[in-house]
Specification:
Blueprint (H helix, E strand, L loop, with lengths): L1 H28 L5 H4 L7 H10 L6 H10 L7 E2 L4 E2 L10 H36 L4 H15 L2 H19 L19 H39 L2 H8 L4 H23 L1 H15 L4 H10 L3 H29 L7
Antiparallel strand pairs: 1-2
Helix pairs in contact: 1-13, 5-6, 5-8, 5-11, 6-8, 7-8, 7-11, 8-10, 8-11, 9-10, 10-13, 11-12, 12-13
Length: about 325
């Protein structure tokens, strides 16, 4: 297992290099980072524009800028991924991209983590129940809920949930659900119970939005996979041997049926990240979603490249974890 994991990590290095090249080229060709500066009134002088180009290394060729972005060799100490620097920002020398990403990372990770945890748990339960009670009223109900959630755009669904939260608070006369903000700021010395309630109030609605979007597709995959396994020969043989139905389902059918779902979840991480951007915007969370939107609005190329590369790393790690889980779910799989 250790050898396989090491080999996969080393194999991910060329993928990251290729991803960094594509990310740099696409962002570099997407627009002029100094467009906002050049459109100011009165127009800035040529000296000001030249100074800004030198600070952002725009006076150099694309290959040279990529080399600077990765290594930092030949730069001014504010650029170089290998040195822990994401590059200068158009938002000013005082704005450091690395610390800004680090500050917002936990905000986004806790939203994505909680949403994935609940979505996966509910998807497994709903998929198994639907498969075991195929074509029943419960199966049709769960199928309808799944397709309904799949059909709803994330930003629209987030707005509906937010409005429902506001209406619920008005009905009970108290702020049970926080509809704006991520709850990162709290009073000094606040009791632990109040901290928990504050975290729940801010986490509940965005988690429901992001959870249902993932749950909808994952539950359908789990249902299909469970149906295929339940009709397989080895499950029929286990039942013929006299094993109890819950033992057959838990030890034989469910573990095998989880393998395709593991692949789907790993692939779906990119979609969850996209959904988190829209969810954070609607609920005004200061996470990586807000960071991304701000970078796009200001044409902050180095901030965009940092966000995209970080997302690529998360997707690669998710696929690596999925590969390692295969051996846990299926004892026949061995990594030599």
């Amino acid at each position: 297992m250790l050898v396989y994991t090491t080999r996969r990590i080393l194999g991910a290095i060329p993928v990251l290099i290729l991803a960094s090249i594509l990310t740099f080229v696409m962002v570099d060709l997407s627009g002029d980072p100094l467009s906002e500066l050049k459109m100011q009134q009165p127009p800035p002088t040529e000296a000001v524009i030249q100074q800004a180009e030198e600070r952002l290394y725009l006076d150099r060729s694309m290959p040279e800028r990529y080399w600077l972005w990765v290594t930092g060799i030949g730069g001014n100490g504010d650029i170089g991924l290998l040195q822990g620097e994401f590059g200068p920002s158009v938002q000013g020398p005082q704005y450091e991209i690395g610390p800004a990403i680090a500050e917002r990372l936990w905000t986004t990770l806790r939203l994505i983590g909680m949403a994935m945890l609940f979505a996966l748990g509910l998807a497994v339960i709903a998929g198994v129940v639907s498969a075991l009670r195929q074509y029943s009223k419960l199966d049709y109900t769960l199928t309808f809920i799944g397709f309904l959630a799949l059909a709803m755009p994330t930003f629209w669904f987030a707005g509906i949930i937010q409005a429902a939260g506001v209406k619920f608070n008005q009905m009970v006369g108290d702020q049970v659900f926080a509809t704006i903000g991520d709850g990162r700021f709290r009073a000094e010395g606040q009791p632990l119970g109040d901290q928990f309630l504050n975290a729940f109030a801010h986490m509940a609605l965005p988690t429901i939005v992001l959870m249902l979007v993932s749950f909808a597709s994952w539950s359908r995959y789990q249902r299909t996979s469970m149906l295929e396994v339940m009709n397989s020969d080895y499950v029929r043989l286990a039942r013929a041997k006299g094993l109890r139905n819950h033992v057959v389902i838990r030890r034989h059918a469910l573990r095998t049926a989880l393998i395709p779902l593991t692949t789907v979840v790993a692939i779906g991480v990119a979609g969850i990240i996209d959904g988190a951007i829209l969810t954070e915007v609607v609920f005004q969370w200061r996470g990586l979603g807000d960071f991304f939107i701000t970078a796009v609005e200001k044409s902050d190329s180095y901030a965009l490249m940092g966000w995209l590369l970080l997302s690529g790393v998360v997707v690669i790690l998710a696929n690596l974890i999925a590969d390692l889980l295969y051996a846990v779910l299926d004892p026949r799989i061995r990594y030599e």
